């Protein structure tokens, strides 16, 4: 604003005087209050008419007492008097002075005064926007946290830069009016420029750097300014300092103890960022005081054992025994390394005397993969507790700097943070900024100034802080907790620190970072520096400090002795999501059974009627949707159902039994193929919607159906976390097309398929993956069933004992349930990972329907659907048995009918692929003892089900006869993009499937 050319003017008819400013071809009005002078409020200027009466009134007031007006007016009148003709000043009226040469001279002086004030206001804003760039953030003093040593030219770090604002050294002791957008003055409205700069540097350029001016909410910006600009606000009592010291002692001495006892073991210690422990505890304390009683956390491996010990408060002997190489596993599964395990613990928060539950979610080495999982688990707990504002349950996510900047799932998680069906009402993110990623210098690891810049996408404030200043860290953590409680939005704390021993304790960082680690070797420990500071202040004595250290060392030694008594590793002690009262003493679900799942006729009819109607009066639906609902009504009348109606009945029956159902994914409300329409939209009223399934029963469970952002990695992780919270819920994610799970493969590989083995983590997420070769090209044809089958723990060479009890146990112990597109209704098991390959063209296929009798009382899931046609009446005469799964059955059935081979060929459908139904397949093989066995699939030979089912079939027949393959030849791509080629391939393997001589010698 200093470039404005200032003209004089006053409002027509009196009122406040103003200065007329011109910039960029526009004219603006800047109000000038008699007492305060120019403010920052501007708006377009109307026609200006000079009104000298107002000026005369101010002039008279000024003559009575110069302090009656602002100093800019004081200067104005002084200059008028000084430059006027002799004797004019005695007239006590300014009319003659406001003319000609005298007025012109006075306006020049007034213009300079106003420009100087505007310049100071601009200077204040510059510090608020860019002060963090020159903050002293690196505890090593050798790097710049923003990767740039350049000082922004608009920040005053040397006197010579005052000229940028049209000021000079003589202005340093002049007083200037402070704008409304700063709190550096306290109760004072003016300050000398020297003091203004000093206070700005103290607020924004010390050990804390604040990024917040990009936030487009004035109240939020003012809130942050007040927290960092108010004089003396960052104060701690002696008791608070002693608590901070005690927590820092525990954090530091825990790492020292592990280093002494297991010097050759990896532990990913916290050395260089020991302040993380008191930081987390401060956040939890402040949040507990605000009403939070459940905190769900996720973090990478660095510092994890310390967090478990000193934040979650896991028994130290349980941690120490993990280092014993002779410790035997008591639980089934492979387990995981100690710094990946999670924990769930309910305890008293000593600072608030309130109960608090802390949960640290287990995670793999894929560092940020746990982020959406934590968010989903947090959302679920909030949902089931009715905590719509996040006042009881919250999440804390810890990150490494390189991963936070480099991992795309971080952005996906942030992008979910304010979506209605995904928000957790604010997450506190704590970045352990090592200023290096393993061996990679940040200057070649990211393009943004800070690793935290991704958080700006959701207008989250970012607090950078020097981790070697414990009190600054604690203050920032307080503010972050208050921000989250006040605004229910994400906030980021960037702990700028270092790694004392490299990536892990076995690594040699000097290979690649010699200069950094020379400084680190010289770096004084933060505990030593802080303890000396408090001793010098008289807060503690040296003896008290040494006693506190000895006290914690003794606790560690006693726990170490106790840990030697542990001979067995119990992974169940490390559960991050226990399901109380759900398991038997043997660790199996109490409700796990294969009981019938059928429904009474009236229930089927009731759900069908709601599914084909609009429960709200005066609701205007689209004509196309109206036709779909009429079609459903016709199906209900004929006691028939297609996939969409079967899904509706499945969900509705669970809701009736009090089981919450949540379906999410891209476009799931309508359905990618426009078959579902679970959310109806009023065609006349914006945002008016109807979810008929929430109008089924008076006391039903709620049904959540929500379109997600265009994300797979983040959303699948979120839904996985949601499913962890409650066994009595059905959580489903549907892909737009089956291959969309490709970009969520990390969640599938590291959590869904292996989570039970690694962490004894139970989960009931269901993945719905549209699958089928329909000539639509390689991208949206295959959901890659071979990948899922490869991840199952089923043994193809062993036929399990067939009994109900064994079957139930086997179903529980399998890591994935894998079914084809039939039997959708009865197979939704809320507490088991389930992969369902759903149809596309079969959604409207006239033969892909079932009757209500298939869902009647006494019915249950069919793992295998036998042939019920003419071939089954004379099994001894059948020449060929074709086993298959999925859509290809309908093509095979059509071809068999056209060739009139109903008595010669039996077609059997496997509906449950894994666990493989050995018992039922054995019955069918024995039934058709004289027939040759075929496995037919539409997928290419190197894909699909063949490699999985072939050894299973050979085990069934004891390798006494072959199982022939019929399908497409091996290929690199999942499907052809040429329609003609697709049809030729289909014709070829149909001919092979029914050519009786095709496999004869």
From TrEMBL:
GO terms for cellular component: mitochondrion; nucleus; oxoglutarate dehydrogenase complex. Its EC number is 1.2.4.2. It is found in: Mitochondrion; Nucleus. Residues 641-845 form the Transketolase-like pyrimidine-binding domain. Its main location: mitochondrion. It catalyses: N(6)-[(R)-lipoyl]-L-lysyl-[protein] + 2-oxoglutarate + H(+) = N(6)-[(R)-S(8)-succinyldihydrolipoyl]-L-lysyl-[protein] + CO2. It is an enzyme of class 1 (oxidoreductase). Keywords: Calcium, Glycolysis, Isopeptide bond, Magnesium, Metal-binding, Mitochondrion, Nucleus, Oxidoreductase, Thiamine pyrophosphate, Transit peptide, Ubl conjugation. GO terms for biological process: glycolytic process; tricarboxylic acid cycle. Gene3D superfamilies: 3.40.50.12470, 3.40.50.970, Multifunctional 2-oxoglutarate metabolism enzyme, C-terminal domain, TPP helical domain. SUPFAM superfamilies: Thiamin diphosphate-binding fold (THDP-binding) (SSF52518). It comes from the Eukaryota. Belongs to the alpha-ketoglutarate dehydrogenase family. This is 2-oxoglutarate dehydrogenase complex component E1. It comes from Pundamilia nyererei. The gene is ogdhl.
């Amino acid at each position: 604003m200093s470039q404005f050319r200032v003209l004089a003017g006053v409002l027509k008819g009196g009122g406040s005087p103003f200065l007329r400013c011109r910039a960029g071809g526009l004219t603006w009005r800047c109000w000038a209050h008699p007492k305060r002078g120019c403010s920052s409020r501007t708006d377009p200027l109307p026609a200006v008419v000079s009104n000298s009466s107002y000026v005369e009134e101010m002039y008279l007031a000024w003559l009575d007492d110069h302090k009656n007006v602002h100093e800019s007016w004081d200067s104005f009148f002084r200059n008028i008097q000084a430059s006027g003709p002799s004797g004019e000043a005695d007239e006590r009226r300014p009319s003659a002075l406001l003319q000609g040469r005298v007025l012109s001279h006075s306006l020049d002086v007034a213009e300079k005064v106003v420009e100087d004030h505007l310049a100071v206001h601009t200077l204040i804003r510059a510090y608020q926007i860019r002060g963090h760039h020159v903050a002293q953030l690196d505890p090593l003093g050798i790097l710049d946290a923003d990767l740039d040593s350049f000082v922004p030219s608009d920040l005053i770090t040397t006197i010579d830069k005052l000229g940028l604002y049209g000021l000079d050294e003589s202005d340093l002791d002049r007083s200037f009016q402070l704008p409304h957008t700063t709190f550096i003055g306290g109760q004072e409205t003016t300050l000398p420029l020297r003091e203004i700069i000093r206070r700005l540097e103290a607020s924004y350029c010390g050990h804390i750097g604040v990024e917040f001016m990009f936030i487009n909410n004035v109240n939020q910006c003012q809130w942050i300014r007040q927290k960092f600009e108010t004089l003396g606000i960052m104060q701690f009592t002696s008791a608070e300092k002693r608590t901070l010291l005690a927590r820092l002692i525990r954090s530091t001495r825990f790492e020292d103890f592990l280093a002494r006892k297991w010097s050759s073991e990896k532990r990913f210690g916290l050395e260089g960022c020991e302040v993380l422990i008191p930081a987390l505890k401060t956040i939890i304390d402040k949040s507990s005081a605000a009403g939070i009683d459940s905190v769900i956390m996720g973090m990478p491996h660095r510092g994890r054992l310390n967090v478990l010990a000193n934040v979650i408060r896991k028994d130290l002997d349980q941690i120490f025994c993990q280092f014993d190489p002779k410790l035997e596993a008591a639980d089934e599964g492979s387990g995981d390394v100690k710094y990946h395990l999670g924990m769930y613990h309910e305890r008293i928060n000593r600072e608030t005397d309130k109960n608090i539950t802390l949960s640290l979610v287990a995670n793999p080495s894929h560092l940020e993969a746990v982020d959406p999982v934590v968010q989903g688990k947090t959302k679920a707990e909030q949902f089931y507790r009715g905590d719509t504002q996040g006042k009881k349950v919250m999440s804390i996510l810890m990150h490494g700097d390189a991963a936070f900047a480099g991992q795309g799932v971080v952005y996906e998680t942030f992008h979910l943070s304010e979506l209605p069906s995904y928000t957790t009402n604010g997450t506190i993110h704590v970045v352990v900024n090592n200023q290096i990623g393993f061996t990679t210098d940040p200057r070649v690891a990211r393009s943004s100034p800070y690793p935290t810049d991704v958080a700006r996408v959701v207008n989250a404030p970012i607090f950078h802080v020097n981790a070697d200043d414990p009190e600054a860290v604690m203050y920032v953590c307080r503010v972050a907790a208050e921000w989250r409680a006040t605004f229910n939005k994400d906030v980021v704390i960037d702990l700028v620190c270092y790694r004392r021993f490299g990536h892990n304790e076995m690594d040699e960082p000097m290979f690649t970072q010699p200069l950094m680690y020379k400084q680190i070797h010289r770096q004084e420990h933060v505990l030593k520096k802080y303890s000396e500071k408090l001793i010098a202040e008289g807060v503690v004595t040296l003896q008290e400090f040494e006693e506190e250290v000895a006290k914690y060392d003794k606790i560690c030694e006693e726990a170490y002795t106790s840990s030697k008594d542990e001979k067995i590793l119990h992974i169940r002690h490390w559960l991050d999501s226990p399901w109380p009262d759900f398991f038997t003493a043997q660790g199996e679900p109490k409700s796990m059974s294969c009981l019938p799942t059928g429904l009474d006729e009236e229930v089927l009819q009731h759900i069908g009627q709601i599914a084909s109607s609009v429960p709200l009066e005066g609701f205007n639906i689209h004509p196309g949707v109206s036709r779909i609902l009429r079609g459903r009504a016709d199906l209900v009348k004929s006691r028939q159902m297609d996939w969409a109606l079967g899904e509706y009945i499945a969900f509705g029956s669970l809701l009736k039994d009090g089981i919450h159902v949540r379906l999410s994914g891209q476009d799931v409300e309508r359905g990618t193929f426009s078959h579902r329409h679970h959310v109806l939209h009023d065609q006349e009223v914006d945002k008016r919607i109807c979810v008929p399934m929430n109008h089924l029963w008076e006391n039903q469970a709620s049904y959540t159906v929500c379109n997600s952002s265009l994300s797979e990695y983040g959303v699948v992780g979120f839904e996985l976390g949601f499913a962890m919270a409650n066994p009595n819920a059905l959580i489903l994610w549907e892909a737009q097309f089956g291959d969309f799970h490709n970009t969520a493969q990390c969640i599938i590989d590291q959590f869904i398929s292996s989570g039970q083995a690694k962490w004894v983590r139970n989960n009931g997420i269901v993945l719905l993956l549209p699958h089928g070769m329909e000539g639509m090209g390689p991208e949206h044809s295959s959901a890659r069933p071979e990948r899922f089958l490869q991840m199952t723990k089923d043994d193809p060479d062993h036929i399990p004992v067939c009994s109900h009890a064994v079957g139930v146990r086997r179903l529980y112990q399998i890591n994935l349930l894998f079914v084809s597109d039939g039997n959708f209704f009865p197979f939704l098991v809320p507490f088991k990972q389930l992969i369902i390959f759903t149809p596309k063209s079969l959604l409207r296929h006239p033969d892909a329907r079932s009757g209500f009798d298939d869902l009647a009382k006494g019915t249950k899931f069919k793992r295998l659907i036998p042939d019920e046609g003419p071939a089954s009446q004379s099994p001894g005469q059948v020449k060929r048995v074709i086993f298959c799964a999925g859509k290809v059955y309908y093509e095979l059935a059509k071809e068999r009918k056209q060739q009139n081979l109903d008595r010669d060929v039996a077609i059997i459908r496997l509906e449950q692929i894994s666990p493989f139904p050995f018992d039922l397949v054995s019955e069918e093989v024995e039934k058709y003892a004289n027939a040759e066995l075929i496995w037919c699939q539409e997928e290419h030979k190197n894909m699909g089900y063949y490699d999985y089912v072939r050894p299973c079939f050979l085990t069934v027949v004891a390798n006494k006869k072959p199982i022939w393959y019929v399908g497409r030849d091996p290929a690199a791509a999942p499907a052809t993009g040429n329609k003609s080629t697709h049809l030729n391939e289909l014709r070829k393997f149909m001919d092979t499937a029914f050519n009786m001589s095709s496999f004869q010698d």
